[in-house]
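Lecture notes, continued. The same structure-token format from the folding unit now serves as the input rather than the output. Read the line below as a description of shape only.
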């Protein structure tokens, strides 16, 4: 039987392990990327590893998240990242150049290669046929040093696309439809591989919108073949030499098969506060809108912007709506400026933002109290916009632009008399000028790394104790996101290199008293439902709990990147063997794990005693022997040091 594309790329990069779903494998990483809000920590960790130059084909450091500079912290971090990059052989994308995933697709993505990024939306690269995976900063630091990336071999799922999208329906609606089918947990432990005739009707930026939001399914990554459309895209970027044709074998084996008819998809929206709360616009109705944001790494490509501009042209944004638009890259912005589309947007009343993440991560443009915000971004998690009472709906650029004009949620067909204006002709040649990419110094010895005063030490765990005890400081529901665990917004993102500062905000969207209680008791244990830690790759969601003394999290299940981050920090990620035991544990109970070392080694059953109720229950630690070693050592840095004899 033949092989899927994902299988072939992984096989070609395999360093260790057997490629059976669920088994631990490790793969060689060709490219890495970091962004600024996870990058400072990743580079501090890279420095701690003592490797002089990166050992990848190319590593890139982007500045795109922390570009709202309302104090010196962000600018200080930019300086740190630019100097550390120059010293260690990393290319530096200056602020203003654009969102990491958009720029990476345009300028650096290579079909068939592997990419590891310290951002959960790194799978955007799957739109150009890469195996692109999001990970915590420490894993990316190890990959920069030439180390393999370890993961559990995913199940490879075929998503066969047939038919073509109707005008007014776009890639965002496709991934929303898939989220409706599969939910935010539906992709866990899987790679979604797109095949079928329908693939041909989607351009590379459309494919990238879909793989970008594959992250919201919990998938390890998603991938499209590299075909003539990929070749055209690379040619238009002056990079045809990077093209190679890649696809699954005609008789490829897949662990699962799914099908989707593109022609059946209608305009959709994900309702507050989860990307899988998807309904058709008809079902939701004409709800009044206060704010519209068109941008983010999901929908800020040239085509997305041109479609929005085509709808806005000659009209005025509704009186009660604030429309903000953030083109994804300098390339996109310059092209819009030159062809007049930017003027159409400005004329309609749009507020133009610099190229970056912006409102997507609450960096400005928070909606009003109880406001309704339509966004083309990928996450509408509770409080992420910076306004906890606001309701964020995720929509396509077409729906966003049309609704901004009407003042209520509606599809493009309610505004346009001629839908063919959405049929955007793509330019043969895109504007290419990489002048905002700074090359590293040929030899870094003389480069001085500049550290701002906001860079504080990060916590490092100690080897696992024989006995692990602690109070259940918080008992949480299903689908707790990293935005709950370590909120990020304009006020907090500048402190990503200052864990003590962040600790006062840990888990506050769930319970404002948590940090004070954790500090008073010197730490404890967390209990949660399904899919704990979904969302971001931010390792701060593990480092800050570590700083607060959290020793273990017991949940019904974990999101992939967060589980790795917990292990890398030496925090036990335990799952209930019998989920009904979740009900038997109460917040405030005192838990005890005796003989922890033998339990982690797997020598004896992993039991936990609830000393308050006297109830004993079994948990599981479904991880490889290597990961058990990391927990025993008290995290990845200790483990690496132990093994290198430092
Ligand atoms: C996000 O979209 O949540 C972020 C901000 O890009 C994060 C990274 C971070 O927390 O810095 C992500 O997706 O990994
Ligand atoms: Fe930036 Fe938002 Fe994309 Fe995260 S999801 S990389 S914050 S644009």
């Amino acid at each position: 039987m033949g092989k899927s594309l994902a299988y072939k790329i992984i096989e070609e990069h395999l360093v260790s392990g057997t490629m059976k779903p669920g088994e631990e494998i490790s793969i060689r990483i060709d490219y890495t990327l970091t962004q600024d809000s996870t990058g400072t920590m990743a580079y501090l960790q890279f420095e701690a590893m003592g490797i002089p130059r990166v050992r990848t084909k190319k590593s890139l450091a982007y500045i795109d998240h922390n570009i709202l500079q309302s104090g010196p912290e962000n600018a200080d971090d930019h300086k740190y990242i630019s100097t550390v990059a120059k010293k260690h052989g990393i290319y530096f994308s200056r602020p203003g150049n654009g969102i990491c995933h958009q720029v990476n697709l345009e300028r650096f993505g290579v079909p068939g290669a592997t990419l590891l990024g310290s951002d959960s939306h790194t799978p955007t690269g799957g739109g150009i046929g890469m195996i692109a995976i999001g990970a915590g900063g420490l894993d990316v630091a190890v990959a920069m040093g030439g180390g393999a990336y370890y993961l559990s071999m995913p199940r490879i799922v075929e998503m066969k696309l047939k038919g073509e999208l109707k005008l007014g329906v776009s890639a965002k609606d496709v991934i929303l439809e898939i989220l409706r089918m599969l939910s935010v947990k539906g992709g866990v432990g899987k790679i979604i591989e797109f095949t079928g005739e329908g693939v041909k009707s989607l351009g590379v930026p459309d494919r990238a919108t879909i793989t970008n939001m594959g992250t919201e399914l919990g998938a390890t990554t998603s991938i499209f073949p590299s075909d003539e459309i990929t070749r055209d895209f690379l040619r238009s970027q002056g990079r045809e030499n990077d093209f190679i044709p890649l696809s699954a074998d005609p008789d490829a084996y897949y662990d699962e098969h799914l099908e989707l008819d593109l022609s059946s998809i209608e305009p959709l929206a994900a309702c507050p506060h989860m990307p899988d709360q998807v309904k058709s616009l008809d079902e939701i109705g004409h709800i009044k809108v206060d704010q519209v944001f068109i941008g983010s790494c999901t929908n800020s490509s040239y085509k997305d912007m041109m479609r929005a501009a085509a709808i806005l042209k000659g009209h005025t944004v509704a009186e009660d709506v604030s429309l903000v638009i953030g083109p994804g890259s300098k390339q996109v912005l310059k092209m819009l400026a030159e062809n007049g589309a930017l003027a159409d947007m400005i004329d309609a009343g749009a507020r133009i933002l610099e190229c970056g993440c912006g409102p997507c991560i609450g960096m400005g443009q928070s909606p009003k109290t109880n406001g309704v915000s339509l966004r083309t971004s990928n996450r509408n998690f509770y409080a992420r916009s910076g306004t906890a009472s606001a309701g964020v709906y995720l929509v396509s650029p077409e729906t966003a632009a049309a609704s901004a004009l009407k003042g209520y949620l509606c599809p493009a067909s309610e505004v346009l008399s001629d839908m063919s204006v959405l049929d955007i002709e793509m330019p043969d040649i895109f504007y290419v000028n990489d002048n905002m990419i700074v090359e590293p110094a040929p030899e870094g010895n003389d480069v001085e790394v500049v550290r701002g005063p906001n860079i504080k030490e990060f916590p490092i765990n100690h080897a696992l104790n024989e006995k692990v005890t602690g109070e259940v400081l918080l008992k949480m529901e299903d689908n707790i996101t990293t935005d709950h665990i370590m909120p990020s917004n304009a006020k907090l993102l500048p402190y990503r290199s200052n864990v003590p500062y962040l600790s006062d905000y840990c888990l506050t969207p769930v319970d404002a008293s948590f940090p004070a209680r954790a500090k008073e008791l010197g730490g404890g244990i967390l209990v949660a439902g399904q899919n704990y830690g979904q969302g971001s790759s931010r390792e701060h969601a593990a480092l800050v709990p570590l700083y607060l003394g959290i020793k273990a999290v017991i949940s019904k299940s974990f999101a992939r990147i967060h589980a790795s981050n917990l292990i890398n920090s030496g925090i036990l990620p335990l799952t209930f063997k019998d989920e009904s035991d979740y009900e038997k544990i109460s917040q405030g109970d005192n838990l005890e794990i005796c003989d922890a070392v033998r339990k982690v080694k797997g020598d004896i059953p992993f039991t936990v005693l609830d000393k308050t109720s006297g109830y004993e229950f079994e948990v599981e630690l479904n991880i490889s022997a290597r990961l058990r070693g990391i927990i025993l050592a008290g995290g990845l840095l200790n483990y690496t040091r132990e093994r290198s004899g430092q």
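Point for the exam: The two ends are 47 Å apart (CA to CA).
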